[in-house]
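Form P-L/3: holo structure prediction, ligand MD3.
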Amino acid sequence: MMLFPDTETVPIAPGAVLFRGAVASQAVELLKRVNEVIAQSPLRRVVTPMGKPMSVDMTNCGEVGWVSDRSGYRYERLDSKTGRPWPAMPEILMEIARECADRAGYAGFTPDACLINRYSVGSKMGLHQDRDEIDFTQPIVSISLGLPITFNFGGDTRSATTRKVKLEHGDAVVFGGKSRLAFHGVGTLRRGEHPLTGNHRFNLTFRRSL
Ligand code: MD3
Ligand code: FE
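OUTPUT (holo model):
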């Protein structure tokens, strides 16, 4: 695997590092695997515990998947839409997540979930923390594919100031250590055309839920 050819490493905050364009050379293969997952467990619009539809379409692969409905946020072994287990995590996704974590100083990262978010024009994600996992010493690895978006990275509290980082096609970010519970979100996806994803952005987040 040819990861990190000679790309830039950008520190975002203590524990958070961006590997710019690190997976761009793998994008065609990655998107092929993502589309195979979507063919088995289709993208769907989930609602928050308050019953509000999110503006992002989601699915998962791995032993468990992240879900949200009126009962709350959690990880589930079965896809409620198909009644079957989530598709297995493709080897190349697992390897890339592991390599990124490794490079950021988290050796032996073994994600059990990969949440696939697909953004369309107008999709956004408000400030939140990822805290549905058990072990916060495990990092989260994020891969961006397709159209760019503005990522908002905050602090330990919702009211902490945020800094904006543009996330582009092929970027990999690892969030661990002091950044693991940081508030974060993304701005509204603007119209555009990407040769590999059309008018969409995909974000893959690799998590260890247990
Ligand atoms: C910082 N996704 O799925 S990726 C999410 O672009 C999520 O789809 C955004 O936030 C997206 O939960 C942002 C960057 C990211 C992911 C997880 C994090 C940043 C994070 C966990 C902890 C801290
Ligand atoms: Fe998040």
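COMMENT: The pocket of MD3 (ligand 1) is lined by residues 115, 117, 125, 130, 140, 142, 173, 175, 179-180, 182, 184, 186, 203, 205 (CB under 6 Å).
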